[in-house]
Amino acid sequence: MNLLLADTAFALYVFAFFGFILLRDKHKALLPLAIGTTVHLLAFFFRWYESHKAGFGYVPLATMYESLSFLSLAIGFLYLLVFFKRGQWRFLGLVSSALSALVLSLPVILGMDRSLKPLVPALQSPWLPIHVSTCLIGYACFAVSFFLGILQIVANPKGSLIAPQEVLDELSYKAVAIGFLFLSAGILTGAIWANYAWGRYWSWDPKETWSLITWFVYAGWLHMRFVKGWRGKRLAVLSVMGFLAVLFTYFGVNYLLSGLHSYV
Fold it and tell me: 263 — phi, psi (to 5°)?
């Protein structure tokens, strides 16, 4: 049932994407995105329920499929709760629905296993949902700031055809600021969990190291904005660099490097 609901949510995200392109009224385009996000949330809770029914209940944030699904869900909620009220820039809805659909389709495209499986012992902790969810919400924010940064880089000095430069800059700042808070919380809760699991807060594991690198990139982004007064394309380039660090932390470390997080 959870997979059927997730696939339905994907279809609704696609409808929302084309709605934001074709419909003049963003409120009408919002409907399939809002329904899709709600259905996606139901898929999350159904998967949680089905894991309990199978005898090894856990919050579904353990596998790569589950983390990508939650990341997609977080992007949808980010638009509905934060950015929808920020003016009439419907391109944000287009970006959010496209990202949600793309991320949710990746497990199918890449042939990932979407079945329920018992947790490995290392993941059987109440810190799992806290640590993973905070990191993924941060990644969702950084994904939005990445696409806003791309728009800023390709825009002319007066702004892109979609929105003025100052609008793109302000929205990117909000995405980075929220993402930085959640990433910080994710690193902190990860350190606490590590102390419980391995007896030390920090091990310089590749996942920990690259999470810290990512944190420093976005800390630098905020520093350059507030202290140096950077705006526009220079910060947009930092947004792109930061998201490349996010991608390596999320995917590259898992598949290219070995360490204490190799089961993730």
Answer: -85, -10
Summarize pLDDT for 92-107 with one digit per residue, the tens. 888 889 999 999 999 9
Cβ neighbours of residue 207 under 8 Å, at least 6 residues apart?
A: 249, 253, 254, 259, 260, 261, 264
**Cα separation of 244 and 181, whole Å?**
19
| Segment 33-49 mean pLDDT | 96
Give the largest CA-CA distance in the chain: 58
| Cβ 149 vs Cβ 119: under 8 Å | no
In angstroms, what CA-CA distances link 138 with 7, 35, 53, 77, 182?
A: 24, 23, 31, 13, 5
Where do the domains of the chain lie? 1-117, 120-264
Cβ–Cβ < 8 Å for 101, 10: yes
How is the chain split among helix, strand and coil, in percent rounded to 5? Answer: 75, 0, 25
Return the ∠ at Cα 134 (arms to 194 and 78), rounded to 5°: 170
